[in-house]
Amino acid sequence: MPAREREVSPLPGDDRMQQLFRDPRVVLISGYARLPDSVASHSQYQRLGVVLAVDSSDGRIVAADTTLLTDLAKDFFRALVEGASVTEDIAEIVQRVQTRYAGQSGAALTTALRRCLETYYQMRDGDQLPGDPDGKE
Q: Is residue 137 situated within a structural domain?
């Protein structure tokens, strides 16, 4: 009897994450910044992280996350950046976070976000971003 192919279990997480994972144009970028000593999560993390999933075909942020301590702060950050374009709205994204997020981690959040954006541009300028799967870029 021939060996049976092993079934692949579904990816963990919700359908949205599975969809992002399967789209070869979506890249995950991250940036980190040192948290101020006065912030509650400093003793646990010492650094604040920002992670963006970006559709490289149009630069749109399709998902975002951060290591901010509370769910409300994480959700607020997502609402500020998701849907924006890292190619067209870069100054607006940074300004939106600077003016709307007034927490003690604000400076670190902005720095981590800028580092994410720098990483995206380095990948783009180095031709390291995935192209259009149809061969059209």
A: no
